[in-house]
Each structure stands twice: as C-alpha cells, then as structure tokens.
Amino acid sequence: MLAAVCHGAKDVRVEPRAEHALAPDEVRVAVAFGGICGSDLHYYHRGAVGDFFVREPLTLGHEVSGVVVEVGSGVKGIETGIKAALDPARPCLTCHYCRAGRANLCTNMQFLGSAGRFPHVQGGFAQHLVLRQDQIVPVPKDTDLLRLSVAEPLSVGLHAVNRAGPLLGKRVLVTGSGPIGLLTARAARFAGAAEVVSTDVEDAALTVAKTQMGATRTVNVAREAGGLAEFEVDGGYFDVALEVSGAAVALASLFKVIRRGGRIVQVGMLPPGTAPVPVNVLQTREIEFVGAFRANDEFRRAVELIVSEAIDVAPILSGTYPLADAVAALERAGDRSKVVKLHLAINEGYR
To answer: Per the CATH hierarchy, to which homologous superfamily does domain 2-150+313-345 belong?
Structure first.
C-alpha cells in the first residue's frame, strides 16, 4: 500500500509501506479521507511536535474515515463493506486511568500518527489501516465520509466543552479560530452558551466563526489591539474561556477578562516553558485553570452529531488533494488566510 511518510522536517514521501496481518480482534480499513491536523503540519515543517521528534519514518494522520475490508477471526458485529468512523486512540484498557473511565490519560496510549513513543505509532494517511475493533464506529451507508473524518477534531471540541462544565446561559470566550477553535465554538453553542466570542489573527477564520460556527461576536486580536479591553471591566465578563490557539499571549489575556470564580480550559498546546500563569490572580480570584487533552468517550458522540447533522462540519472543509499530492497539500494547509481544513483523498473510490 502507499502512505504519506514523514522522514524529518520538510521530508514527506508518498511511498510503499508493508501490510500487516490481523490479530483476532483487529479490523483492516481502506481509508477514504484524512484531515490534515496542526500536528501533521508540525511534523512536516519541524520534524517534531513539541518534544516529540521523528526518530524513524512516521506515517502521518489521525483524522480518518473509511470502509472495512477485512475483519479478524474474533471480531463480532463488524462486517466488510461498511462505512466507519475511525477512532485514532488505542488505550490499553487495563491501566488505572482506563479503568477509572479516563482513557484519554492512558499510560500506554497508542495514538495514530504520533512520535510520542518509540517505535512510533504509524498513522492513517495510508491506503490501508489496521485498528482494534473498538476503534471502529459503523455508520449508515449514506454517510458522507469526508464529513465523517472530522469526528476526531470535533471530539476534541466536545471534550473541551465537557471540561468547562455546564454552559447553559454562560458567556464563553474561545481564543483561536483554527479548525479546533471553530469546532469548540460550535460545541459551546450546542451546549447552550448564551454568548460565544471567538478571537483569531485571521479575518477569514473569524468570518467562518461568526457566520457558520456559532460565534455571536468575533475579535481580530492582531488588528484590534484593545479588542478585549471592554471585557475587563467589573472584574471580568466571561464565565468560561477556552484557550485553543496554543499562544502564550492569548493565555495571558484571559486572566483579565474571566470573572471571579470562572474557569479557563487549556486546549491548545503551548511550547514548553512559555505558559504565563499569574498564580496570585488565580488564587485571589479563585479562577479554575484546567487542561483538556484529546478526547475521552466524546468520539462516538461526535460521530452521532455528524451523522444526524446536529452539528454541520461542512463550513470548515476547504478542499481535498489526492494522496499522491500530500506534500502540496501540507504546504497549502498552512495558509490560514485561505484554508481552514484540507483533506487527503486516500482511496479516491470511496465517498
């Protein structure tokens, strides 16, 4: 099979990769679409995500959908030919965190397309992908596989909102309007937030946020230097802030606009050592500062919302490239003035 394989910074090659035999509890899937995530861009441009450096050839990709082509001898309830959402998380299911219902914190997690462990966990930008049966979420045969591939980033937004607590009637700020930020804003409105203010440095992203993804107001923090100043009065305006940009300056701005007793959820990954957290303010205003990492059981909920069209993910779709043009797609995906989310069409016969 062919796959988009990262060998280091600016070195991604579409090349043959070996197929693997199935274990009794595994399923082989023909991958239809793969969404290009920020982590894929980091691997492409830097050869690393945070402190995780590519130390061996790594197939990229974890936002994927596809069609089942083979099932292991012990698999029940999954048949060849069905369409499926593909959960990139493969927790061990036996550690303390898995048994406590927090599998996203698994101490032995295998997550598609990650250099966080060695040997690396190979990703989904490949014509065929082998997954454990619990990673396969069957969907109706008329499901749009392109939209379905957005289930993983939507699950991240849903998890962030769950970490924020009840949002009914709340005032919410979302910093960053990339794909995760847009989906988080939409998830916040879906959860009943009365107001969602979205920020970014690109007008194109903010237009999508305001017109199609639930934001009640937007602020371009690059052009409007004091755009959040009005929210600082009376000790802060927002009940909840979701920091999705992964920018230190965005996080620093939140402690002036969050009300006393409010909650800040850190969703974006900041470079190590750059998080500007004013502990005294955190303490004296009793602000809750919590992390949100990937998703837990929200993946299946994301699938349900996409299939039922309760949440429309189409506004973030910016186009597809064939697998053979993976490098061109990775180059273009970084242009946020024109692109929200690009996808690779891995096996172009599947829709």
So the answer is: Medium-chain alcohol dehydrogenases, catalytic domain (3.90.180.10)
